[in-house]
Specification:
This protein is α/β, with parallel strands linked by helices. The protein has one domain (4-213): P-loop containing nucleotide triphosphate hydrolases (Rossmann fold), CATH 3.40.50. The protein is built from eight helices and five strands, in the order βαβααβααβααβα. It is globular. Keywords: Kinase, Transferase. Its EC number is 2.7.4.9.
Amino acid sequence: MTGKFITFEGPDGAGKTTVMNNVVAKLVPLLDDQLLVTREPGGNNISEQIRTVILDKKNTEMDARTEALLYAASRRQHLVKTIIPALQAGKLVLCDRFVDSSVAYQGAGRQIGMDAVYQMNQFATENTLPDKTIYFDIPVSVGLDRIAKYRDKDAVDRLDVETKTFHERVHDGYLEIAKKNPDRFIMIDATKPLEEVISETFSVIKREGQNFFKE
């Protein structure tokens, strides 16, 4: 595959989606149809249907392993129908969350085992991992405060309303993943002013996807 696969990761409230949207606005005029922007869970019809089930606040009885399996199923469909075709077409693929989210949220947050969730997803993705992962780090208390202050109530999902202890486990899980994958993870301090974070992220993407920006 001749494309480039870059994912955006971070705990809740880190602002990664906001940053991604702003960066994409800068990239679209430069890359046009060479760029694919997608998200997880979701990214195509079947995967978006699974997303609705996973994040529905009414599904309070969902078992932790059921949740992890649904994420993996959505990811499989997303990968084979959306991501891989784009990479084969030589595109730069930017994805809001991927396997690392499951390992952090279900593996560490739900305490069903980071290694177990990783292996489940390796089966689902046939060992596919991003070329680079941009990780937006933020203290848990700051992230949750941002959600409470700024996120629209209709946009708050089932994971947003978990306990602070859950989110602390997720944050610690992310740091453990980053430590194990220093060549893949690019750490960004998400406590900086938004414009600084956007500028730094844009610079990272231009550097890592430099072949897409040739004059």
